[in-house]
Design a protein that fits this description.
globular; single chain; 147 residues; 5 strands; Rossmann fold; 7 helices; five-stranded parallel beta sheet
């Protein structure tokens, strides 16, 4: 960047976490990639948009419908996840109706995925995701990725 202004570096703490990471903590047969982030999460914390709560809850419900989890397993997993140091950020109207749709269009993402990307860009935090399209969009915007 030219001129007197410089781009602030991305923060090394409290990364943005998307729902694909939580899948590993919910389902035993998912990719072990989410396990690597648990220590980092416990040390530094994470941030997620409020959408994350519903996506994680829906994941467990889908797991029940498919016979991957019992209702008791779902409740247990959700209680365990609720104890993790993940700060939930409410999505503003302007973010939901302006910034997110713009990012979604620009990078061919769902609005859900663009919500995570928008938070990472705006907060200058690394993004933890296993979603291929979201990783590609983050890379295009030079958002550091985990894992």
């Amino acid at each position: 960047m030219t001129g007197a202004h410089s781009v602030a570096p991305f923060r090394d703490t409290a990364f943005v976490i998307d729902a694909s990471i939580a899948a590993r903590w919910i389902f035993d047969d998912e990719s072990p990639a989410g396990d690597d982030l648990l220590d980092l999460l416990l040390a530094d914390g994470a941030v997620a948009p409020s959408l994350w709560l519903l996506e994680v809850a829906n994941m467990t419900r889908s797991g029940e419908r498919r016979g991957r989890l019992s209702p008791d397993d779902s409740r247990l997993r959700l209680r365990e996840i609720a104890r993790l140091p993940i700060a939930i950020e409410q999505t503003s109207l302007s973010t939901a109706f302006d910034a997110v749709p713009a990012l979604a269009r620009e990078h061919a993402l769902t609005a859900y995925d663009a919500t995570y990307l928008e938070l990472a860009v705006r907060s200058r935090r690394r993004l933890a995701t296993l979603d291929g399209a979201l990783r590609t969009a983050a890379d295009r915007l030079s958002v550091p990725l985990l894992p």
